[in-house]
What we know:
Elements: E1 4-10, H1 28-36, E2 41-44, H2 49-58, E3 65-67, E4 72-76, E5 88-92, H3 97-111, E6 115-117, H4 123-130, H5 134-140, E7 146-151, H6 155-167, E8 171-174, E9 179-182, H7 187-201, E10 206-213, H8 219-224, E11 227-232, E12 248-253, H9 254-269
Parallel strand pairs: 1-2, 1-10, 2-3, 10-11, 11-12
Antiparallel strand pairs: 3-4, 4-5, 6-7, 7-9, 8-9
Helix pairs in contact: 1-9, 4-5
Amino acid sequence: MNKNRLLVFTDLDGTLLDHNSYSTEPASEALALLEENNIPLIFNTSKTRSETIKLRRKLHNNHPFATENGSCLSVPDGYFQGEKKKTVHTTFFGLLYTQIRQVLASIRAEYGFEFTGFGDMAAKEVAHLTGLSADEAVMAKDRDCSEPIVWADTDENLETFKRLLAARNMQLTVGGRFYHVFSVGDKGLAVHWLADYFHAEFPDHHFITIGLGDGINDLPMLNKVDHPILVRPMHGNAPDTSNIENISITDAPGPAGWNRSVINLVHELL
C-alpha cells in the first residue's frame, strides 16, 4: 500500500470563508500547501451550486463538492477516471426545491407559523441579511434541494415545526445564519459517498479524511471523518462535540484558525 493520501472536507461560511467578509485570504498558506501536495479540497457547504462553482473557479478548485448541506453532490465528469472535464454531474437527494416550498407553504397555511424563506424574499432582502452583493444574493436564491428560513416564531412552535417536517420525511438543521429545511442527505452523507468513490478509484491507497466546520449542520461531517476539526465560531456558542472522538478545536475563528489547523495536520500526517 502506498503512503497516506489525504482528503480534506470543509464547510465554507465561517470556516474557510470569513464570517463577515467572505474572504479566504487568511487561509492562503494552507490552500497553497494542499495544492502543492495534490490533496483534494472538497467543499461541503450549505451554499448553492451557483455560489460554490463561483468560489471553485476563484480558487482554481476542480474537485467534487457537496452543496445545500449534503442534499446535492456534484462530481466533475470523468473525475474518477482520470479525465477532469469542465462539466459537472450533480446527484440530487430527496425532494427538489419546488416540492420543499410547497410543503412549507402547506404547513404555514395550516398552522400559521411565522417564518420567511429565501423564496419569499427578493434578492435585495437576501443581500441585506447576508452581506452578499446583489449578484451573489441571486446565486444564493438559485436553490436545488433546500430552503433557508428565518424563524420568527416561538421556540415551542419551532419544536412543533420540526415534528411536522419529520412526519413528512424532512428535516431542519442550523447553519451559520439560518435554519435550513431539506429532505434527504447531510454533510456526513457527502463524506461517505465521496470517500467510497476515492477508495474505489484508488484501492491501493490509504485515504485519511479531515473535516472542518463551525456549526451544528457540520456535526454529521465531523462524525464521519478520521480527523474532525471544529473551527471556533466567530459569534455565539460552539456546537456540542463531546460525543465526537478525536475532535480538535482551532485556536482562532474562521479562515485564520482553519489555516493553522490544516497546515499542522498535513505536516503531521504526510
